[in-house]
Write a sequence for this structure.
């Protein structure tokens, strides 16, 4: 697990789920996303970041990962967003 700050100094928790999946969770009053014609999520943007895109990169545990899939998750907490990101090195 790693905690990174967004541009408003709010924590984003990065948690490695398995070899190619990372969950990103954090407080966000709003978020936005985009889907392709088949309904696959291609972009997800937390309030204050990060903004994640298919083919884009994220840094986690001193490594740079390429995003291959984005799946928003339901959160049981108010104003907390969670997404599952599939990645490759």
């Amino acid at each position: 697990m790693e905690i990174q700050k967004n541009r408003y100094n709010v924590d984003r928790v990065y948690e490695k789920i398995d070899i190619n999946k990372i969950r990103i969770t954090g407080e966000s009053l709003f978020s936005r996303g985009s889907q392709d014609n088949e309904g696959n999520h291609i972009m997800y943007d937390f309030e204050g970041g990060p903004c994640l895109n298919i083919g884009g990169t994220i840094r986690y545990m001193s490594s740079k990962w390429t995003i291959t899939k984005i799946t928003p998750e339901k959160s049981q907490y108010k104003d907390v967003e969670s997404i599952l990101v599939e990645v490759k090195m």
